[in-house]
Write a structure and sequence with these properties.
The chain contains five helices and no strands. It is mainly α and 122 residues long.
């Protein structure tokens, strides 16, 4: 369990370092996620600890939105000025995120099915 948490935090930290030092125009968590995907692709094995930690984080994801929701309360004037635009941006980006998530999930499921049937997965 601690190894899984350390792996997640290490990828997050490496993403943050790459973002700040190299100036990569991607958010640090996205870079960290790409590093984690690369790590998982290079070292293929069952990781029940990582699965358990990821499931726990996903189950409690709503808690992570509390600080940002509280921060919005202080931004009332900005919300009045740009609220409609923000609402459109959030709606469109949410819709696009859902589409990309479905496409990636379908791609990953095909990859996993190939692995189970002895395929190369590529």
């Amino acid at each position: 369990m601690l190894g899984a948490i350390a792996l997640l935090l290490s990828c997050q930290l490496a993403g943050e370092i790459i973002h700040r030092v190299a100036g990569v125009p991607l958010p640090a968590p996205v870079i960290g996620m790409l590093l984690l995907i690369g790590w998982l692709a290079l070292y293929r094995k069952e990781r029940p600890g990582l699965e358990a930690v990821s499931a726990w984080l996903a189950a409690h994801l709503a808690i992570m939105f509390v600080p940002s929701a509280v921060g919005l309360i202080d931004q009332g004037e900005i919300l009045k000025q740009y609220g409609a635009g923000l609402l459109v941006a959030v709606t469109v980006s949410t819709f696009l995120t859902m589409i990309v998530t479905v496409l990636v999930f379908r791609w990953a499921m095909r990859f996993v099915k190939d692995e189970k049937h002895g395929g190369s997965g590529a």
